[in-house]
Amino acid sequence: MAGLPKKEANVLRGHEGAVLAARFNGDGNYCLSCGKDRTIRLWNPHRGIHIKTYKSHGREVRDVHVAPDNSKLCSCGGDRQLFYWDVSTGRVIRKFRGHDSEVNAVKFNEYASVVVSAGYDRSLRAWDCRSHSTEPIQIIDTFSDSVMSVCLTKTEILAGSVDGTVRTFDIRIGRELSDDLGQPVNCISMSNDTNCILASCLDSTLRLLDRSTGELLQEYKGHTCKSYKMDCCLTNTDAHVTSGSEDGFIFFWDLVDASVVSSFRAHASVVTSVSYHPKDDCMITASVDGTIRVWKT
Amino acid sequence: MDADEEDYVFYGTPIEREEEMTSRKKKAVAESSGLLRSLPPWKQEVTDEEGRRRFHGAFTGGFSAGFYNTVGSKEGWAPQSFTSSRKNRAEVKKQSIFNFLDDDEKEEMEGHSLGTSLQFDTFGFTAAELARKQAEKEQQQRPSAIPGPLPDEIVLPASESIGVKLLLKMGWRRGNSIKDSHTNSLYDARREARKAFLALSSDDVSTELAVSEGVKSDLQNVIELPANDDHKSSESTPVYVLNPKQDLHGLGYDPFKHAPEFRGFSMKNDLFAFKSGKVAPGFGIGALEELDVEDEDVYASGYDFEDNYVQEVEEPSGLVIDSKQKLGGKEKGVLSGFKVASKLDYQLERFDPPVVPKNFVPHHKFPAPLDDSNKHDGDPPPPEAIAPEDNNLKLLIEGVATLVARCGKLFEDLSREKNQSNPLFSFLTGGNGCDYYARKLWEERQKHNDKSKQLLDVKSSPTMQKMTAESRGKILGERPLERSSRDTNSSVASADVIQLQFNLSDTFTKPASLKELPEIAKPFKEDPAKQERFELFLKEKYHGGLRSTDSGGASNMSEAARAREKLDFEAAAETIEKGLRGKESNLSTQQFMEMSATAQAKVTQAEELVIKKMYPKREEFQWRPSPILCKRFDIIDPFMGKPPPAPRRRSKMDSLVFTSDSVKSTTVDETVTSKLPVAQLDPQQFSKDVNDREIEVNVEVEKVERPIDLYKAIFSDDSDDEVENSTSNQVDDPQRKIEAANTTLNRLMAGDFLESLGKELGLEVPPDMPQSINKARTPAPKEESNNVNPGNISSLAVENKPSSTYTAVKGTSVNQEGPHDKAYGQESTQEVRSQNNELILDSPSGGKIKVTGSSENESSKIKAEKMDQEGRKAKTPTGHRQNWSSDSSSEDERSRKRSRRRRHRSDSSDTDSSSDHQDRYHSRSKGRKKGSSREKSSSSRRRYSKHHKRGSRDSPSRSSRHSSERERSESKREKRR
């Protein structure tokens, strides 16, 4: 078993105020962060270098995602818009307006042709990056509360909502599966084998669901997650589950027996985001204290 | 010539020369001389003093009217076209009324405009203005040496105003600002200080230079001031203070002098944090935006350590600063001009916290309930006594003790009285075994109190209420309820009432197996209703026998939910039973408490299990991805070539209404037709769909009616009273029900009547049109609200509700109309009476009599309506009058009529846009057919007259949605008259 990334390798400072999300790019060489200061920042986490700042958002930036080919970015936030950026020039290519409220999460699909966003307005919206239309190509509004998080596979759209459901929209079959967890879902994260979905609920519990059956496989407890939007994820080997905590701790659980493998204080304040390196044992965490920390074994 | 004229005195008006007179003028003169006065009135013209024609007809004036006299420009009243102010900002002029007035009107206006008279014009503003205008005017008239308008300074007010005079007398000299010299200097000092402060707080070393410069320039200003011209006086008004002093520091005090690292922070706070304290530091929002809830720094709420720190530093008064200054004084010397006092006068008085007594227990004892046994709480325990050797006696004593402990002193007294002669009971009066009895009694009481006390700890206020109920029972000598003291776990007051009742009923019919149930912990504490159902369930379970079909308030639950709940209940009951079985083995109260706790734990576990069983819950729906989404995901559209999808449910409304799953399919179809943009559907397919839907709808008409009610509740204006009425109807007098039934019947008959009428007129009247078509065509929800086929008998039950309310509303409107109609109605009461009688005779049922002939107002109204029809035919103004009065009926009625019109339209199968016209035609033709319709039942007559009324009301203007529009139509009608 490879060791868990517990050693602080770098601290990325630059954001003013809370950092709301930090994400590795597809190959894990770079990372993106966004925060209350309305900026998106591109970093090299391994060397601790700030590369670029993307400024255009009018309010806080809540989520950012980079296309698999690293050429485009999409971001969303409190200004109810999605921004579609060119990575190298730092210019906004398109703005997608249509959400009636803040946008919580955003993801590219596999081909970076569609951006799917999840909003406080209880809807999921899909936006076309290929055409010049700025209208959503699909609105999914079966949720009954704010949609917090979205995940995409090749054929499916998954989203977790405060109404306690994780919904899977299968484009291939034209089917919606709704898994009601009974607790507000804060964040969903897919296992690397895409068989399971990890849902962070606001009762300070992470729940692991089997995607095919909707069965509850495991629950992970110990951290605090009651009022903030916080991320959770699985490690690259799917051996552990990790999440931040509102007291600044980071928790690692064993995937199978749900025991807390490790927990340590990483930040001075709420850990808003965790992102695990796709290949290596490396993790970045972002916090309200304004720092992004890079953890390695 | 002028000079000549001065010398003469003229009488009369001079005859002007022909060529001097304009033709217009000539005409005016001619008119005034009475040339035209002899003309008939329609040939006379109204002119102004210039002889210009004042009134133009639409065909005689028009363009030239604007040209010749109104505006004075060739363009006439050219509408203001939009000009972007973006490129030519300078040219944007503010429009004023003067742009649109004639010369003479302008003159009039100017006569009325307010201005300060010269005398009271203190600073000569008005005078200056006037003078300037005058100068401009003059300058335009004659060429001057200096081209362009004269500078203001040159044109001065001729005289000094009274204000200036007064001021001068008070010692004011020109050029000085109007304030006494004292304040002036003070102001300067303040300004200086402010500048200094700003400079200091902007943490530049170089600022001192700037400060001195600023001061210097200020001084220069001051020096320059007297030299200035008179008209600089206005300059001496104070400059608007950009940064008012808002802190509580002394002047020139720099709170960050010794802590420069906080300076930036505080500045930020000043800039951004003045609106709400919770804005994230560092980033404000744009100047044009307002701070919202979403701008609050949610993260700072729990963790605002930085903020606290700064606040501490900034705290203007109090110890912190004090000590800090003292410290600073020691370290760096004191403030300039001050020196450290050798002896500190000021000593902060400190008080030690009060000493907590050692035996103090931080636990509040609530006042004990009115339980008389509790009195003995404080009694010292009687000494341990040896049990009497007689086993019987021992048992007896123990039994009595328990009973007494339970039921109180009263029992003791009673038994003592009864068994006075009985030697066995001598222990009560102090005989054999007396001390043993005392001991036993104490023990029992102790036990008994333990129970209630332990519960007391857990209980809160509602329990206190409960205890009073219990104590009341005790006072009344009832057997104390075992349950009542235990059931108190539920903390919801509303549930208490129910439970109390429940307990009471329990005392009378207590099933054997339920005896031990009182100790159940409530598994559904959070949901009182559910708990209630659960108890009912338990009761039923242990009772056996018939199970009521409708269990509790679960009627509003779906079948599935009920089944699920039942399973829950079973599980919970099982766990409880297990707990009970375990309990039976050891009966001591102490152990029981533990036991119940474990039982509770078990129950909570069970609860968790139940929850786990319930969640995650997987549901599956159909979902249709848009074709382009499929394309972008590189997936073949699973719905390719299929008809447009049926959205599962559009809103929460539907889900609220349709709790049972069986209805879902129809809702889907309903919503599709009304909500899908029609453009998406190609007509053929659409019609096919509609046909499909028709079948479905016809099958399940009963269910389809439900969203109508819902829509009504949400969208129609009169939703409130409708809902109220419908609910109140259930409890209401039977009369209303009869009325409702009658009106529905009437409506059905009216439907038949309309149909027959349509046939007579040669219009094709289809049988009942399915509603889905109506829906598709009338997307407005309001119109859908009453969209019920009159002939549809299956919808009768649903019809009932609105119709009954209809009559209610109608009644009020009738009353409203009363006064209007009365005056007219008086004239021919005879007719009214006869009509009334006729109605009564016509009506087949007694209920109808009530509807029609009960009140004078009503009958007069019917008469009026009849008159209306006749008036309509004859086009007499009285008919219109009636119309008008009927217009004053309430909004409710109108909306209802509107909806009825829809229905009517669907009946007469006219679906094209000219339906309204046709509708009117209908009603008019009905009016013509009036004679034949006499023999129809009174109900239908009422109805059709209503139709007529509506039609005639609609005729001048279709829209009668708002009162303003209504007024307009009324006025139109009046005009026509």
From TrEMBL, chain A:
<dbReference type="GO" id="GO:0071013">
    <property type="term" value="C:catalytic step 2 spliceosome"/>
</dbReference>
<dbReference type="InterPro" id="IPR001680">
    <property type="entry name" value="WD40_rpt"/>
</dbReference>
<comment type="similarity">
    <text>Belongs to the WD repeat MORG1 family.</text>
</comment>
<dbReference type="InterPro" id="IPR020472">
    <property type="entry name" value="WD40_PAC1"/>
</dbReference>
<feature type="repeat" description="WD">
    <location>
        <begin position="96"/>
        <end position="128"/>
    </location>
</feature>
<protein>
    <recommendedName>
        <fullName>WD repeat domain-containing protein 83</fullName>
    </recommendedName>
</protein>
<keyword id="KW-0677">Repeat</keyword>
<dbReference type="Pfam" id="PF00400">
    <property type="entry name" value="WD40"/>
</dbReference>
<dbReference type="GO" id="GO:0000398">
    <property type="term" value="P:mRNA splicing, via spliceosome"/>
</dbReference>
<keyword id="KW-0853">WD repeat</keyword>
<dbReference type="InterPro" id="IPR051980">
    <property type="entry name" value="WD_repeat_MORG1"/>
</dbReference>
<dbReference type="InterPro" id="IPR015943">
    <property type="entry name" value="WD40/YVTN_repeat-like_dom_sf"/>
</dbReference>
<feature type="repeat" description="WD">
    <location>
        <begin position="264"/>
        <end position="297"/>
    </location>
</feature>
<dbReference type="InterPro" id="IPR036322">
    <property type="entry name" value="WD40_repeat_dom_sf"/>
</dbReference>
<feature type="repeat" description="WD">
    <location>
        <begin position="54"/>
        <end position="95"/>
    </location>
</feature>
<dbReference type="GO" id="GO:0005737">
    <property type="term" value="C:cytoplasm"/>
</dbReference>
<keyword id="KW-0963">Cytoplasm</keyword>
<feature type="repeat" description="WD">
    <location>
        <begin position="12"/>
        <end position="53"/>
    </location>
</feature>
From TrEMBL, chain B:
<feature type="compositionally biased region" description="Basic and acidic residues">
    <location>
        <begin position="858"/>
        <end position="873"/>
    </location>
</feature>
<keyword id="KW-0694">RNA-binding</keyword>
<feature type="compositionally biased region" description="Basic and acidic residues">
    <location>
        <begin position="469"/>
        <end position="486"/>
    </location>
</feature>
<keyword id="KW-0943">RNA-mediated gene silencing</keyword>
<dbReference type="InterPro" id="IPR011666">
    <property type="entry name" value="DUF1604"/>
</dbReference>
<feature type="region of interest" description="Disordered">
    <location>
        <begin position="460"/>
        <end position="490"/>
    </location>
</feature>
<keyword id="KW-0539">Nucleus</keyword>
<dbReference type="GO" id="GO:0006397">
    <property type="term" value="P:mRNA processing"/>
</dbReference>
<feature type="region of interest" description="Disordered">
    <location>
        <begin position="363"/>
        <end position="388"/>
    </location>
</feature>
<feature type="domain" description="SURP motif">
    <location>
        <begin position="396"/>
        <end position="438"/>
    </location>
</feature>
<dbReference type="GO" id="GO:0003723">
    <property type="term" value="F:RNA binding"/>
</dbReference>
<dbReference type="Pfam" id="PF07713">
    <property type="entry name" value="DUF1604"/>
</dbReference>
<feature type="compositionally biased region" description="Basic and acidic residues">
    <location>
        <begin position="952"/>
        <end position="977"/>
    </location>
</feature>
<feature type="compositionally biased region" description="Basic and acidic residues">
    <location>
        <begin position="131"/>
        <end position="140"/>
    </location>
</feature>
<keyword id="KW-0341">Growth regulation</keyword>
<dbReference type="InterPro" id="IPR035967">
    <property type="entry name" value="SWAP/Surp_sf"/>
</dbReference>
<feature type="compositionally biased region" description="Polar residues">
    <location>
        <begin position="786"/>
        <end position="816"/>
    </location>
</feature>
<dbReference type="Pfam" id="PF26093">
    <property type="entry name" value="HTH_TGH"/>
</dbReference>
<dbReference type="InterPro" id="IPR000061">
    <property type="entry name" value="Surp"/>
</dbReference>
<dbReference type="Pfam" id="PF01805">
    <property type="entry name" value="Surp"/>
</dbReference>
<feature type="compositionally biased region" description="Polar residues">
    <location>
        <begin position="826"/>
        <end position="838"/>
    </location>
</feature>
<keyword id="KW-0507">mRNA processing</keyword>
